[in-house]
Specification:
By secondary structure, the chain is of the alpha/beta class. About 30% of the residues lie in helices and about 20% in strands.
């Protein structure tokens, strides 16, 4: 049995399937961790969702910003932009079932896994976790946010995207969800700046990457994996905080990580 984490798939089904074959993934005994953004940008969003749903008992997922965008479009009948590529799943006969499936996924997930030497605690988020938040607190808030979405998806999805007043407050529902799913950099007070999307070396002097060894969650976990920030090219320079979005939908790579020994498996993108 092994646990494999994969970075943002974003509708790149062919690369996803090729990666599963490369790691010899067996849903009967292995677990697949998906760092969010299963869909959008790539050509086969529905195929990705349908396959993941089929093996859902062997999959751990956290929601990403593109997943939330799709859910907002679906539940609030929002029109799609020219860049969106999930048109087919908006009107598919299985669309409601797939949307409900995504809606029930957390923003933060963790569990203990066994390596050859010991048991380790591994956590996963799509974008990031506030620096003063313990694992227990992050998972509790994740659950509360998840329940709000399930109980009233229309109202609360709208709030995530339109509650501009609270976007930068990690004490609000919309601010916290946006931190979990969109953050890359923070200011000196740990509050997010959502406008920067570049490389780590180009971060403005008044901002820093959200991840640090000193972040409170790192007292509770042995390994933290996340996606979202393709411009990092998989590098954080911190051995136990691993970035897995390597830009498959932008023509680069899809990266899988075996959590037991942190071995990477890389699939070249077929996108142009």
């Amino acid at each position: 049995m092994a646990n494999y984490a994969v970075g943002d798939i974003q509708g790149c089904f062919e690369e996803f399937k090729e990666g599963l074959e490369l790691i010899k993934f067996k849903s009967s005994k292995d677990f697949l961790w998906i760092t969010g953004d299963l869909i959008n940008r790539g050509p086969d969003s529905f195929k990705v969702l349908e396959y993941v749903f089929k093996i859902k008992d062997s999959v751990h997922i956290v929601l990403g910003n593109h997943d939330l965008h799709y859910l907002n479009c679906f539940f609030n009948n929002r029109s799609l932009s020219d860049e969106d590529t999930f048109q087919s799943q908006m009107f598919h006969k299985k669309s409601s079932k797939m949307a409900r499936f995504l809606l029930q996924q957390p923003f933060v997930f963790s569990k203990k896994i066994l390596t050859k030497r010991k048991a380790i605690q591994v956590a996963m988020v799509h974008a990031g976790i506030p620096r003063n938040m313990s694992l227990k607190k992050a998972e509790t808030f994740s659950k509360l946010c998840e329940l709000k979405l399930i109980n009233d998806p229309k109202k609360n999805l709208k709030k995530i995207f339109e509650d501009k007043k609270n976007f930068h407050s990690v004490d609000s529902f919309s601010g916290l969800v946006n931190f979990f799913t969109r953050v890359r950099v923070v200011n000196k007070n740990g509050l997010p700046n959502f406008s920067f999307k570049g490389r780590k070396k180009n971060i403005p002097s008044n901002l820093v990457a959200w991840f640090k060894k000193e972040n409170k969650i790192m007292n509770d976990v042995d390994l933290l994996v996340f996606g979202h920030w393709a411009a990092l090219q998989g590098k954080t320079d911190i051995s136990n905080i691993i970035a897995l979005d390597t830009g498959c939908c932008w023509g680069k790579e899809l990266t899988f990580l075996r959590l037991e020994d942190q071995k990477k498996f890389v699939i070249k993108s077929k996108q142009k």
